[in-house]
Here is the input.
Amino acid sequence: MAVKVYLWSSLKKFTNDQDILTLEAKSIGELLGVLERDFPGLKPFLDGGISFAINGELSNPNSNELLPDGAEIYLMQKLKGG
Amino acid sequence: MAKDELAKEFKYIGTRPDRPDGFDKVTGKAKYGADVAAVGMLHGAVLRSPYAHARIKSINFEKAAKLDGVKAIVTRDDFPVGIDGDTLKLLENTIAGEFAYYDGHAIAAVAATSVHIAKEAINEIEVEYEVLPHVIDVDEAIKPEAPVVRENAGDFSVPEGCSPNVASYIEFGIGDINSGFDKADLVKSGRFKTEAAHQGYIEPHACMAQLDHDGQGEMWVCTQGHWYIRQMCASVLGLEASKLCVTPSEIGGGFGGKTTIFIEPLALALSKKSGGRPVKIVMSRAEVLRATGPTASASMDVKIGITKDGYLTSGLVEFRMQGGAFGGSPVSEALQCAFASYNMPAVHHIGYDILANRPRAAAYRAPGSPMAAFAVESLIDEICTDLNLDPIDVRLKNAVKEGDKSSYGPKFKKIGLIETLEATKDHPNYSISLGDNQGRGVAAGYWMNHGGETSVSVSLAEDGSVNVTVGTPDIGGSRASIALMTAETYGIPYNSVRVNIAETGALGFNEPTHGSRATLASGKAVYEAANQTISEMCKRVAKKWQIDPDAVLWDNGYAKPAGPNAGDFSPISIKQIASEMDQTGGPIAGHHEASIRGVGHSFGVHIADVEVDPETGRITVLRYLVAQDAGRAIHPSYVEGQFQGGAVQGIGWALNEEYVYGTDGCLQNAAFLDYRIPVASDLPNIDTVIVEVPNPDHPFGVRGVGETGIAPPLPALANAVAAATNVRLRSLPMSPAKVLKAIKTGSDGC
Amino acid sequence: MTKIHVKTNINGDKVEFLADPRETLLDCLRDHIGLTGSKEGCGTGDCGACSCIFDGDLVSSCLVLGVEAEGKSIETIEGMAGEKELHPLQKKFIEMAALQCGFCTPGILIAAKALLDRNNDPTESEVRYWLAGNLCRCTGYDKIIKAVMETARDIRETA
Ligand code: FES
Ligand code: FES
Here is the structure.
């Protein structure tokens, strides 16, 4: 299943200058695995904590969360709240 | 949820009953952080650095330890070594190691039999410091030759050639901003600055902690999130989190500032060192201002392109934010909020998180959004003035709506910015005529809201009332809103619901009451848990009636046959079901645990009217209007309260509040007299309009209302002052002296 | 430091305690008598959370020494409600949601009562200036001011 992953542009230097990736992943966990495998430079960012928006919905990372086919996923820096 | 469901009339939601904890809070009975004592309790005090930056060469506490009544002294040596990453930063901020990084940084702590002895002992501790160069201002700190706050502080994101004080860097955007600027009829840019402001909760941090040698401990603490406190204390002390039980006190305000640790690990360490005696630490106001909070200070460049009929074509922001000695300014949130209100073909965002010799920034209500709003909404106002366009119309033309991609990427679901703008346009405040030296300012603001990790439980009491247990401390009436949603779910009176805030042992993990999430997330979870008990009640009634459970439905506090085919039974009330529980299978309870999704983005629009005294530069707020989309207001009075409280914090930030540092890098206004938050006589009434565009992903349409309200006041007031004086202030606060100078010279020099 | 024996009257009760001469009245109320309803928000007279009535005068109890209470009569938030009913201000504050976190509330109630005891027909400006020494960070004061004004009206109507 293919999903589209949008990265913030300062991550491009770790992804061969692409800020939109089309990847095969069925879940968030799989997606993180694929990102780490294909683009090891992203690992510190992923480990540092990130938030996701999956088809427009902001959420905490849940590795078991299944991704709908064609999902649009935005990686965002971990959000704080007051 | 179907649309008609969202439009449906509610019985309890939207009413304004007395809050359940009201009695305790008007009679002085409610117990806050400093209101407890225990047998054998010791009092703690903290020694703090008098320097902005220094190497700690030695600490000698021999004399202090000899004082009668001193039971324990801790320094960094009493904390584990080998910690790294974020935990190390947390530990460093809790108690200094080799370096003191800011005025007020904790150096050592004492526990003694009285507060007086503890304070005396603090004065007897001898510390040898080597004073190091410091840097305070964000624009100074980003210079390559600036004094280095912490060596190797920059993370993997920092581009080469940056100042060593850059902790992290972020960049993102959509579209081609250059072609956007080419298409514009007017391109305008400006630099804006905001000073650090403190959350300013009236209750200073306080805790009582007890820790045995085997690592079992208990804590009573005023906090927005006791699971966070438990996790953080355990990590900096090398304890097992599960062995700590943390009970939240009532909390005297937090606004984000009580989501992290300061004195709590010190109290635990002192308790352990004194043989497990309980230790209470209460901060002074000066300690609160010097060592906790505040938010970041910011220096921001904005460039915006617009067509002459008012369509935004392109936007660029570069934000530099100083978040203290350990990084962690809300710069990425600020960037996400910058253009979030507008549908623009191209935007680009650049952000630097910068270190300075200041206390570690803590979250403050919509972290980052107020600064971003100040920069962007001020510049949009300048543009409106230049092009002679109505500021609400321009915002309406560009406002984001359902289906639009946000400026930071994800698509918006149902949102209510347009409705909110229309509400302000129609409000009488927008058309009242103004006199000499008076001006009106308009500004919008945004917060994304947050769901987060949530655990709740619900149980049916024998008398048919319902006990709800949540883990989100009640800062501003959330017991009432949760009770209302519970009452609505069951169809039972509001007074039949009790809401308890549980300690860490009683529920699964809960994030703090932050991110505007208490009513949204705990409410959603309680709805789920309540429905579990409802289906259990229906099951039991079905057994009694000997029909299929699906043939029983729940209606307004009663189990009823689903239709004529189900059989002819008279409805059974929750009271009766509860009274028979012991004979029908035992207690009935439900619980729900989840990372709550489906937060609804929140937009607000404010209108401020001011008068500026041309002789003194003093600004008087004449009128103030907050309109904000609440999704659905569960308890409208507390929603209005959030709007009003947020607005007034923003007004304070815009007009008076700032961290003032001396050339020695020490904070000069660590008291409420000098760090002046708004008082009653500074303000008019704060008018409110609750816009309700229900959040389709919440059972009752809630969006979360706490945070957005602090963002628009900063630009709304600057815009009003510009309208009143024809002078644009681009730096905050707009203190009388600064305003006067700007009137005389035509600019505030920013 | 040698403690001093203080005899005083608090909310109508005779009370005795031993005060360290450095202790404020607020410390003594909270730590020796167990009346923790008065709060310390600053300890420097700037926030009003510790407001009490001291021989008929509204004071910041953090600026009064405990030993000064000798022979005086003191009213705190714990004495504000009647035996059967809350004080009208207390009721109105709950009814109108004039509190959020509630930390400033005891001080504001005491200060507002001191105002209404003197003047049951204050203007809004008078209420705002009277309460200018009581900081509230949560509410923006709007509902507090309205609750005080409405209570004053109720008091006038029933008088
Ligand atoms: S504690 Fe007394 S005025 Fe603030
Ligand atoms: S209600 Fe929180 S300080 Fe007033």
